[in-house]
Write a structure and sequence with these properties.
The protein is α+β, with helices and mostly antiparallel strands. The chain is built from 19 helices and 12 strands.
Length: 577
């Protein structure tokens, strides 16, 4: 299929190629794996040092306190190296700098203990990192202080596990043997802040080892997140006013049904060299996630795609596209060599042909009639014409009627309601006895269409009020100059539809049963059934990703972007997002 309201590009030659860092593992991935190995060696030798040191008689050569401190520092170094391994594989420049310092420190610590083999492995890592330093040029990811909170909990888990292990390794020197959960918890809690816990050791040496390691782990757990929290966070990219104005100009000339959602305030834009096309995106967990089709002239799409890939390569992000049309997906695959996965279908209604008459619409007709007889009336207005009092009430109701505290949406949600910057949006309100009981908001789709954005209703409102509002909006479309209306997205619609038909194969039926099971928590089947009532044309939407190995990561990033996977807000911890 072709992009709606767009012409096909005439160029058939790819203008963007798959970035080298996506095509092969390369040196960064090998060095990242080596860093994992050195980190693991550091952890093991640091934790086991107290057990092995007696065999080497090191205490006769070096003071015990020095070797204990070296063991503690080695453990801390190992934890950091393991955390840095993934960033090295992504060619991050900051990770390279930190890894060189930590591997150099690891060499010194292994010499002090002494452990020549481990020292040689760490030294080899330093040499290779310095030799291939030109490979590590990727810029840092945009971050907020939430990263410090997440890192704190990661390090706390690592510290508790490591501390428990070192206590277990020295269990023979503990009076009464390995402690119970209560004494163990108190020993860890006291030890991580440098205090003596309830455990009594038969000899001073194990006490010094355990104390040094716990204190080192505690300092790492507290100081590292504190540094990240106190330093200025890298600002998250946002669309500037001038960029938004240029974007809105493109939307009036070349527009996909989801294009207006790219005016969200939490997305960024990358432009083609000609300025005739742009791609909106957000970076989620290292994935540069494009939203919908490229915006603008399809002739300029290859240039925007090329700029998108260049941006991804500069930051070592994994590029992907969420929710693009079949035509745009074809362009992406042709230009990049990426793969595509059908996610589901968008329901599109032609308002010039819509009618409530006929047998297929019987259920909707009866439902609408019943709700209307219950005293409901519907108002359909452009946002610019909505009364300020209605606006204030709707904003309060939207928060109160939301089924959860999380506002979902990325590729198919605007993220704002009745905003003055969206005068052409359409607001549909259902009233009963003068009170608004439900409402919809549609965003513009080019010059003659609109796409459903928000659907909210009071939980006590009569069933069928949503059908009433959509029906009234479709019937009012002519006066609004609207010829086509995009309704909800139905995930995996073709599976649900084909899987219930006669002759469906066992794999298809199994996949359908999985989707029906998931529908208990996610609106998969219900959205499909709701959309199908209006006899729409189904337009497929796709996920485009580099390779099969990237699909799990891209999939999780898409779920996080759409807020199906969420992290606790910093407000939960008493901070500020």
């Amino acid at each position: 299929m072709t992009g709606r309201g767009s012409a096909r590009p005439t160029s058939s030659k790819p203008t963007a190629t798959l970035p080298a860092f996506l095509a092969a593992p390369g040196i960064p991935r090998l060095l990242g794996s080596l860093t994992y190995l050195v980190g693991a060696i550091d952890l093991l030798t640091g934790l086991l040092h107290s057990w092995r040191v007696r065999l080497h008689g090191v205490t006769e050569i070096l003071p015990g306190a020095l070797t204990d401190a070296a063991a503690a520092a080695t453990v801390v170094s190992g934890v950091f190296l393991i955390l840095l391994g993934h960033s090295l594989k992504r060619r991050k420049r900051r990770a390279w700098r930190a890894a060189v310092v930590l591997l150099g420190l690891s060499v010194v610590l292994h010499v002090v203990k002494p452990e020549p083999v481990a020292a040689l492995v760490a030294a080899a890592g330093v040499v290779l990192l310095v030799r291939h330093r030109a490979e590590f040029r990727a810029l840092g990811d945009p971050t907020t202080r939430w990263r410090a909170v997440r890192l704190f909990f990661i390090l706390l888990v690592v510290s508790i596990a490591s501390g428990t292990l070192v206590i277990w390794l020295n269990r023979r020197d503990i009076v009464g043997g390995f402690p119970g959960l209560g004494d163990l918890s108190r020993e860890l809690a006291y030890g991580l802040v440098g205090a003596n816990g309830p455990l009594v050791f038969e000899r001073d040496r194990p006490l010094d080892v355990v104390g040094s390691l716990l204190l080192g782990l505690g300092l790492m757990t507290l100081l590292t997140p504190a540094y990240l929290a106190l330093r200025s966070p890298e600002p998250l990219p946002r669309v500037t006013e001038s960029e938004e104005q240029r974007l809105r100009e493109l939307l009036t000339r070349h527009s996909d049904s989801l294009a207006y959602f790219n005016t969200r305030r939490d997305k960024s834009l990358v432009w083609s060299a000609s300025g005739k096309s742009a791609i909106a995106y957000r970076v989620v967990s290292g994935v540069m996630l494009a939203s919908g089709d490229p915006i603008g002239d399809p002739e300029a799409w290859p240039g925007a795609i090329s700029a998108f890939l260049d941006e991804a390569q500069e930051h070592a992000w994994t590029p992907a596209v969420l929710g693009c049309s079949e035509y745009a997906g074809t362009v992406w695959v042709r230009e990049t060599g990426f793969a595509a996965l059908e996610l589901g279908d968008e329901a599109v209604v032609d308002t010039t042909e819509f009618t409530l008459q006929g047998r297929p619409m019987r259920n909707v007709r009866q439902m609408v009639g019943r709700v209307a007889r219950a005293g409901y009336s519907v108002e359909v207005d452009r946002v610019r014409d909505v009364d300020p009092s209605v606006r204030a009430t709707a904003l309060a109701d939207a928060a109160a009627w939301r089924s959860s505290d999380t506002e979902r949406g990325f590729s198919m949600a605007l993220g704002r309601l009745l905003d003055e910057s969206d005068p052409d949006c359409v607001f549909v309100a259902a009233r009963q006895d003068g009170a608004v009981r439900a409402f919809l908001q549609f965003v513009p789709w080019g010059t003659d269409g609109m796409s459903l954005d928000v659907m909210r209703r009071d939980s006590t409102a009569d069933g069928g009020v949503n059908e009433l509002m959509i029906t009234e909006a479709l019937q009012a479309a002519k006066d609004l100059g609207v010829r086509r209306v995009s309704l909800n997205f139905a995930a995996f619609r073709s599976t649900l539809e084909r899987g219930e038909k006669l002759g469906a194969g066992p794999v298809l039926r199994l996949w359908r049963r999985v989707l029906l099971f998931a529908s208990r928590w996610l609106q998969i089947e219900s959205l499909y059934r709701f959309n199908a009532k209006f006899q729409p044309a189904w337009q497929p939407r796709f996920l485009v990703y580099p390779a099969a190995g990237d699909l799990p990561r891209v999939g999780f990033a898409a779920l996080e972007a759409e807020a199906f996977l969420t992290w606790p807000s910093l407000r939960w911890f008493g901070g500020h997002a």
